[in-house]
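Notes taken during the Thursday session

The instructor put the following on the board and asked us to keep it in front of us for the whole hour. The protein is F-box domain-containing protein. We were told not to look anything up and to reason only from what is written here. First, the residues (540 in total):
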Amino acid sequence: MAFPRNLSQLLCSNEVPSQLDVAHVGEVADALLTAIGEAVGKVKQLEAELKKCRIVLSPARRLPQEILSKIFSLIPLFPSDPDAPADVAAVSLVSRDWRGAALNTHSLWQGLVFNPCGCARTLKATNPHLHHSEYERARVWLSRSGSLPKTVRLERPLDDSRCGCDDPRKQCESTQPTVVKLLAQLPLQIEEFALHVSSTGCFRKWAAAIEDAGQPLSCTSWMKLRCFALVFVDNDHHMWDDSDDPNFSIFTLLPPITELHLNLPSREKAFESDEVALACSLHIPVPILHGLKIFVIRWDWGGSKLAELLAHCINLESFTLDLDESDAFTELTDPVTEVLRDTPLVLGRLHELCLRRGHVHILEILRAPRLRTLDIEFSVPVTQTWDAVKRIGTFITESKIESTLTRLRICELLTTQSTIYLPLPVLPALQHLVLDSTGVSSYNLAVDGFFDDGSKKHPQFPSLVHFEALNLRRSSRTLQEEVSFLQRRAVGAPCLITASYRDDAVYSEGTLQTRLLSGKDVYLRVVPNQNYDDSRSWYV
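Then, after some discussion, the predicted structure tokens were revealed:
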């Protein structure tokens, strides 16, 4: 039905229609609305049928299993979001072909995360049948990974509860029967194991459970681990009660590993006073320290006791220290710190050094002549930023790594202005530079000891191929100083600049390229920002 032709003159004028005309046009409008509704319904039906056709014709149906397997291998072993769906189960249930591809993607089955069993939180006896069934499922899961390294994690829930093993009637949460059996058997060699505990007592009970599992220790996966992570979870106050006698320390229970991740309890919740924390030593056996190649530790106990460990890490290749918003080696009256400032510790095989959430006073007492990667996330007051920046340059110079350092990452520099002045020694081997600070709009790069008037050539960064300036603040002068500095290199490899902004950029990527780039050796891209979370929890 169409608009009545005999009323077309009303469309070209402003005359008031008669009551008869109003009634007639209303009937036409209702009929048109009905027709439209029927047509929309028909379109939806047709679209639904078309969708079915597209499902059948989907190219995903014709993907070879090798391609599907490559795609599935990108699924993270342990998703960062604990509420995320079980990706492995999801892809396995799509179709028979997808399940076949998933089963052939060995990396999907490399790891398992366990939580304490319900038996540990009640006075009920452990259910052997339940844990035997769980063990069999875990064994089948891990066996699908073939010869790839296998990882098991026993994590505590992120709530305010703590292990109730102080009650002799309750089972310690760390002695989860399925996990104990996995680590006490050898058919499935577990290479990496992470254990979350509430106290030193929990770790002792874990070690006792392994010994009581019926297998000689030398024939267990526990004693053949490559990597072990011990995480003390700070759910409440629990005094640090490890033995002062090194022969009875919990660390004598460690297996002979080459990689140790140690997440110590916070000073606030583990000690009655700062003085007690400063005087506390970790009695990790010297043979264990000698064998370590990778050492990751969260330490906010302060003082200089950490040096007792590092002095024996003669084969260490990678060291990560999370200071948890604290500092170490700062006591002016500490005789150990005074000696180390005059005669620093030399980590002769260290290739990678990462400092997290703290100051960099430790750089005053360390030397690493073979270092290739230096990664620092600051947590210092704005008044100490300049001092911290100078310490980085001094460490590089005194370690004599100017010609070997290939990657440098510096994060969370603070400034009262919008620009950070960053003088560094000449770094001829540096290939990758990352600067990531949320309150900075630009970096004034400079060569330590070299006068730069902003126009002449300079010797810095001849090998730099990737410069990242992340979390930049909005500014009309953004990246001008950085691009100019890179384009004025006396000798320079082609370099890619990657920038991201903490809020909307003033200019688009294309506009920045047009405004800033004048040479053929510097390229620019703008990527979406990933917020730098200052308050993030850090777990090994």
